[in-house]
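Ticket #4471: structure export looks truncated?
Reporter: QA, pipeline team
Priority: medium

Steps to reproduce: submit the single chain below to the structure queue and open the exported record.
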Amino acid sequence: MYRRLLSFAVALLILPAVALAHGPTRQKTAESIVIDAPPAKVWAVLGNFADMSWHPRVAMTDAPNGNEKGSVRTLGYKTGGLMEEESSRIDDDKMRLSTFIGHTNTDIIPATNYSSNIAVKPVDDGAKSEVSWSAAFYRGYPNNDPPAELNDEAAVKGVNAYIMEGLEGLKKAVE
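Actual output as written to the record:
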């Protein structure tokens, strides 16, 4: 009986510490836009991994291996700073692009371990396209008690803004 009571008391002391010790939770966001152009025209721009000039924040793109799976592109931003993004899938038939950024520049995107999927689908009998962009990521500060600019809310807001700016830039570039 004494051992059970002692075990219970120890568990009560340890459990709150374990609950507080967990790190950040994975966040997700998704946005889409309709573009007044057929999917093939949209994909011709979006599917070129070596060119991300359609995104308003991007000043330069360097992808020496082009559209090869596992290709890494270096993105230079208009506000300064660089990030490397790896293609995990470029599927021309399905018009899907999947990428991963392990170490983001939190001045550009307040998140880490960022992965995204972008897909182009026909709408209005193929006269228009719907582009969907989803992302999963962790907040920019991986430890407990993050500063406000790198917490979960800031990460979702920042990634969402990055995605929407990209979708609107793509729309402008294609239409």
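Status: closed, not a bug. The export was complete when the record was re-opened. Leaving a note from the reviewer for reference: The beta strands are 27-35, 58-62, 72-77, 82-91, 96-101, 111-123, 128-139.
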